[in-house]
Design goal:
This protein is an all-alpha fold. It is built from 3 helices and no strands. It has one domain. The longest helix has 57 residues, at 30-86.
């Protein structure tokens, strides 16, 4: 048997099976048909609602990711500014404006016995 004849034979046997199949009476009743016809719009509405919800969530997530990127850029800029302001050259440049004076003599206290800061 050629491939074409096998396909035709299979197709005819499937059609024969479907034609001879006896459906239950409750499945072919008017009530069941009404239930199925009314179920289709309900499922379609649920599908559209779900797709709308998912796409809205995706849009919100995309906007939040943009905000995270903007905040991370701003954080890097602020860290750079902090590092510039903490540099020795910047501090020495700002010293005259701060009205600070040099300490005349620095004395260090050396204790022979190590004393605890806090005791229980």
């Amino acid at each position: 048997m050629s491939f074409k004849h096998r396909v035709i034979h299979r197709y005819e046997s499937i059609l024969n099976f479907l034609g001879n199949m006896i459906m239950p009476a409750w499945l072919m009743s008017t009530k069941m048909k009404l239930v199925l016809v009314s179920l289709v719009p309900v499922l379609a509405f649920g599908y559209v609602y779900q797709i709308n919800t998912v796409s809205t969530s995706g849009y919100i997530i995309h906007n939040l990711e943009k905000k995270v990127q903007a905040v991370s850029i701003e954080t890097r800029q602020l860290e750079t500014q902090v590092a510039e302001h903490q540099s020795m050259a910047s501090i020495q440049k700002r010293l005259p404006d701060l009205a600070m004076t040099m300490a005349p003599k620095v004395t260090f206290v050396n204790t022979a016995v190590a004393t605890p800061v806090a005791q229980r």
